[in-house]
Amino acid sequence: MKKNYSFYSLLTALPIALLVLVGFTGGQGGNFSGSPGDSNSNCTSCHAPGANHGGTPMLSGVPMSYTAGATYNLTLAINGSSVSKFGFNITAEDQNGVKVGNWTAGTGSQLRNGGTTDGLTHSATNSPSWTFSWRAPSMSVGPVTFYYATIQANNASGNNGDQMISGNSMPVLSNETEVTISNFDMYPTVAVDVLNINLNQLDNGQLEIYNMNGALVKQSDLVQENQVDIASLKSGIYLANVNVNGLVTTERFIKR
C-alpha cells in the first residue's frame, strides 16, 4: 500500500505552526527583552531575523531621574509599520542586571512570567502601542535602564518574515530628594574635550558621569567653577549627575 507522506507531514507540521501562532498571540512570558539580566536574549530566539516592515519602536515617559516608590506611566509604540500584528517584551534592571521596580500591565499587555518585578509582554497583537506603569524601588538602587524588544509580524502563522527591533533607555539615575540644584549650569551640551560646570556660588559638590549602559565612567569633585576633562571618553551620549549637599540634578550631554 502506498503511503501518503505528504498527509503525514501536514499532520506533523500543523501542531508546530499552531504552537508558534498561539505562543505569539498570547504573549511571550520568557526572558527576551535583550537585557543583560535576560542573557541578552531577544525575540530572534523564536522569530527569524531579516525582514523589514518599516516600523520604529519608541519608549516614552521615561523620567530623567526616579524618586523611590514613585510610579511612572510608560508607552512603548511601534510607529510607521507596514504590518498589523505586533508584540513586545520589556524589563527594568540596575547596573548589575538585577530586575528592579514593579510593573502594572495596561490594555493589551500582561506580566511576564507572572511576577510584578520581572517585566511585561503583550497579551494582544492588534495594536502597535502599549501603555503601562512602572513603580520605582522603595529605596535607591542606583541607575536603572529599561530594555525592550519588539516584533512586527507578517501574520503568516509562522516565525519567518517577522522583524525584531530591540532597544534600551538612557540610564535613569536616582533622585534621593525631589529638590534639585536650581542654579546649576553645564555647557556645552555637545562637547569634545572639556565639560564646563558652574555651581553659581553653591558649595563644593561631586560629579558622576554615566554612559548609556548605566556604567559609571568618571567621578570628580567640584568647586564653584569647573572644567572637567572628558577627552578620554568615547563618543556618545552621557548623563552627568551632580550632587551638592544632598541636592541632586542630572543633565545629558553628547561627547564628540
Automatic annotation (TrEMBL):
Gene3D superfamilies, per database record: Reeler domain
InterPro entries recorded: Reeler_dom, Reeler_sf, Secre_tail
Entry annotated with the keyword Flavoprotein: no
Record keywords: Signal
Pfam families with a match to the protein in the record: Por_Secre_tail, Reeler
CDD domains linked to this entry: Reeler
Superkingdom, natural source: Bacteria
Secretion system C-terminal sorting domain residues: 186-254
Residue ranges constituting the Reelin domain according to the UniProt record: 64-153
Name this polypeptide is given: T9SS type A sorting domain-containing protein
